[in-house]
């Protein structure tokens, strides 16, 4: 997924329902730093719009399954989850390609 400047995006907006109102959050993909001998890992991050409550905050996941479960918990629609999954899959393919090119 490219933005208007042709650069690769690392985040996508996602709509969800909280307290009976539609909110917008973001799902982002970031490479974790290498720690010692460990391989690079991918962080999948969900940032809801409202983060002022005790049970809200930013969520970091290591798998697409975990991300989809968090999005379902936050009442993200099925169609929206499919759109996010397509973005994540495409971005992961790009990151893997970048890794093998270096």
Please describe what this structure looks like.
The protein has 102 residues and is an alpha+beta fold. The protein has helices spanning 64-73, 78-101, and strands spanning 11-18, 21-31, 42-47, 59-61. It has one domain. It has two helices and four strands. The chain has a four-stranded antiparallel beta sheet with strand order 1-2-3-4, with helices on one face. Helix 1 (64-73) packs antiparallel against helix 2 (78-101). The radius of gyration is 15 Å and the shape is elongated.
Note the topology.
Elements: E1 11-18, E2 21-31, E3 42-47, E4 59-61, H1 64-73, H2 78-101
Antiparallel strand pairs: 1-2, 2-3, 3-4
* Helix-strand topology string: EEEEHH
Number of helices: 2
The computed structural class is: alpha+beta
Number of domains: 1
Strands of the biggest beta sheet: in what spatial order? 1-2-3-4
Range of strand content = 25-35%
Measured as a percent range, the helix fraction is 25-40%
- Give the overall shape, derived from the CA principal axes: elongated
Q: What's the mean pLDDT score?
A: 80
Give the oligomeric state: single chain
Number of DSSP-assigned strands: 4
The radius of gyration over CA amounts to 15 Å
């Amino acid at each position: 997924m490219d933005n208007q400047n042709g650069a690769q995006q690392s985040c996508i907006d996602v709509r969800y329902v909280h307290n009976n109102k539609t909110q917008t959050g973001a799902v982002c993909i970031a490479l974790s730093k290498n720690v010692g001998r460990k391989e690079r890992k991918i962080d999948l991050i969900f940032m809801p719009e409202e983060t002022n409550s005790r049970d809200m905050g930013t969520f970091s996941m290591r798998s697409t399954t975990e991300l989809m479960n968090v999005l379902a918990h936050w009442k993200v629609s099925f169609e929206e989850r499919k759109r996010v999954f397509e973005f994540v899959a495409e971005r992961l393919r790009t990151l893997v390609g970048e890794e093998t090119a270096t």
